[in-house]
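Form 7-S
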Amino acid sequence: MRKRKPKLRVIQPDPRYGDPMITQFVNNLMLDGKKGVAFKNFYRAMDIVRERTSEDEHAIWKKALNNAMPQVEVRSKRVGGATFQIPTEIRAKRKISIGMKWLIRFARARSGKGIAEKLSAELIAASKGEGAAVKRKEDTHKMAESNRAFAHFRV
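Output:
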């Protein structure tokens, strides 16, 4: 176990929107340490979102992230030889990072040409409450709801 909590790293805001959450999103999107490429792909995706919806792309991104963020998750705990799925609340920072990772993972899994195309399609779908990332959140919530009987095992 840790002796003390590690210092939180300050994330710099991104150049276009001035939002540190976007930098965090791009850090998750980045592969092989290529941050410039990740930023280019993200901004290209945001431009595609603006073209297709003719609305504020930053607002759509935030709405998509909010729709993909889970509120509860299930954790496995062994009690008396049996393993139970115990629903637990998620910390705010973890909610955000899980939502971002799901959006990126399901965008990569989509069909389409180029990550910008795929990401923009996933963001638009998630902002409408559709898409694989939002379905994953709903499945997680359903699982937590069905295992609510084991909530008293929570640590």
